[in-house]
From TrEMBL, chain A:
Its main location: cytoplasm. Pfam families: CTU2. It is found in: Cytoplasm. The keyword Transcription regulation does not apply. Pathway: tRNA modification; 5-methoxycarbonylmethyl-2-thiouridine-tRNA biosynthesis. Keywords: Cytoplasm, tRNA processing. This is Cytoplasmic tRNA 2-thiolation protein 2. The lineage of its organism: Eukaryota, Metazoa, Ecdysozoa, Arthropoda, Hexapoda. SUPFAM superfamilies: Adenine nucleotide alpha hydrolases-like. The keyword Acetylation does not apply.
From TrEMBL, chain B:
Gene3D superfamilies: HUPs (3.40.50.620). This is Cytoplasmic tRNA 2-thiolation protein 1. It comes from Chilo suppressalis. The keyword Protease does not apply. It comes from the Eukaryota. Keywords: Cytoplasm, RNA-binding, Transferase, tRNA processing, tRNA-binding.
Amino acid sequence: MSFCQKCKLVPGTILLRLRDLYCNDCFLTNVSHKFRACIGKNRILTQNENVLICLNGGLGSTILLNLVLNGLALNNHKKLLITPVFFHLIGTEENKSFTKLLIEQCMNQNYDINLCHISEYMIKIKSKPKLNHIPERNEEAHVEMKKKLSDMSSSTRNDYLAKIKRELFICYAKELQCNSIFTAETSTTLAIKLISNLSLGRGSQVQHDIGFCDNRNEVKILRPIKDITLEEIQHYITISQLTPLNVRHAQEYSLQSVAKLFVNDLQQNFQSTISTICKTAEKIGIQNENKHKIKCLICESGINKNQCKLTALEATNYSKIVSMAQQESTSGIGSPIEQQFSMFPHVNKYLCYACSKNYSEMKSTVPLNI
Amino acid sequence: MPVLCRTGCGEKAVLKRPKTGDALCKNCFYHAFETEIHYTITKGELFNKGESVAIAASGGKDSTVLAHVMKTLNKRYEYGLNLMLLSIDEGITGYRDDSLETVKQNRDDYEMPLKILSYKDLYGWTMDEIVAQIGRKNNCTFCGVFRRQALDRGAAMLNVKCIATGHNADDIAETVLMNVLRGDIARLKRCTSISTGSEGTIPRVKPLKYTYEKEIVMYAHYKKLVYFSTECVFAPNAYRGHARALLKDMEKIRPSCIMDIIYSGETMAVKEDVSLPTQRLCVRCKFVSSQEVCKACVLLEGLNKGLPRLGIGKSSKAKKMLEEYNSKLEHSAKERAIQDLNDHKVINGSDKCSSKGKSCKSGLCKSKKKYTEIDNHVNKCCNSDCSGRCKCNQSNDKENEGNTKINTLLEQYGINESSNDSGIDQNKLDVPNNDIVEDLLNQEEDPCSGSCGKMGSLQIGF
């Protein structure tokens, strides 16, 4: 029998990446070390500060809850010094029994959870989050939100929903006096997110969307379990006998679903796929970070104006012009016709490339002051 | 009622552009296609007036269309460029030998001088011989590295100011994805730039950077350009295939994602604290390299020493391999000396691996044998009497393949009834168009002349 490669005392029980054998104890220590190291080495949190911890009941969220509670329960110098504020955003399609289960999951640990509807995004003056109860839904906003989302293609909807959630998390973090937010994104989800973000034209935003810290707003979004893979999470849940809720993911055919399928398939054959993708993401930064004066109204990313002589943005717009107008009238580049037919409304003025593209798919207006 | 051209010229539309979703007639498509490339060339400041430019020609669709469009635009907009064709003969039987005939056709059609350089002349090895050594995996590494340098050498011989390559938008998007998957941050940084090359080197430019592969195929098809459409016989095992499969799947969902990926690559920056390799000149061959000795030299050294895997994988492995090899050489030299003293004429077993005709126990030589056998078989087949029929079959296959390719393309982007039914088009065109494409195809005697039919018949001749 082979022994755990870490302690070399006990027979190994868990095989990771088809290669590394660990015993239960070493494995659990390793996972929680990854979580603590991620927070520790970045030195972003101050002592006992309020942290909004976003939960959705899924695998990542369940493990994040467990790791935070374990850290708080410690009585030595390693005690996790934060004040957690648990929070859940209720989706438009989520049924009440699911939300109740999530509340139970938190209450069982003697912690309160704040709840809000995602459709609050449509309302200017947002209602306060409710503690341990499902808040009343604004039906008008709910219908409007559903309509808006159903008008979009599935790829755009996924991307747009992520931006809405980000904005609402920040908004409620401020409401609940938190300066930082924890989200439960794993290295697997982040690798998938990198591939889908690239395909959406968000290459310049990788550092904020995939990295440990998103500091586009004064409220920082942190991803403390970004070094833990889905494989590790599944083992952790089995060993610790946790009960994640069954989060229903829409099975629509989208850029994101294709990226997910691809990464998971490649990971089967090349065990280092996810870690390579994440390592690549860590090396990607932002062009002239301090020079950004304009920010995208939807995703708050800095807008870089005309760094290159020619980018895919100009090329696409030019393609549109030459395929719209008759031959004689296309001779003048930069004519008013260019504005009229642009495939990217408000781009580089109010919106970034990808958000502008999303915006062009929206039929109803957005709550933007454009 | 037929769908009319989006520009309002009054003509019937023949295709829907994958990039913008607009339906265009043949002439407006030509105009849009060419004008866009002109826009890329002028906006990207790719050339200066009066320069000599080498077009890297493989005989494939991209380089054929590039040569055609460059010639057209050079005349139309008076670039004043002196254009010539530059081809590299890798020595791949059943692929490059045939495609070079197409390049020669291009030379005659477009009246441009042509220069062909072969791996055999430059490096002493053909790709067939290299594959016999290395096997079916990793051989693209050799081919790619050698071609890069071969193009530089060719350009220097032709005394041109820059090399134009036929990389299209799909190729570039694919490369972005592949470099992310491989974690190659240095290449990720430079793969989207339209013009590459540092001081002292001949820059490469990509005029088709924003042109979709699909449109290139359509353009060549409608213009009835002669090109060679077979995938390289050694390519299927390349890692690039994964990135390509992903891109194709994504493109089905949102055709514009190719441009979006390119935009991502263009606006991406590498963090300042990440160390990147610096470009310098190889100490041995004096061509561009990121290392002291360039990859081409390492690979070549490996081949010549009978260690074909020398340049594959980490450089630390290469060092180890070389050390082993040197100690082995020393060892065998010693033994030989002893044997000579003893008047024995038996050659040491450890030496056998590197010398050709001897039997060998290591895996490397086994694989070599196997592939030489395959090559022999191929050669036999081609040289014997059946060659005519043999090639005929091949070209027939190609014809069919090419035909299905253009047909699927036309199904997706050509406008006819079936495209409406297929449900692939997001913005469905309401009005079915009566068999424009089919008519088009029927007008020609050979349904595949644009993509490969003519090629097929040409091949038989050769």
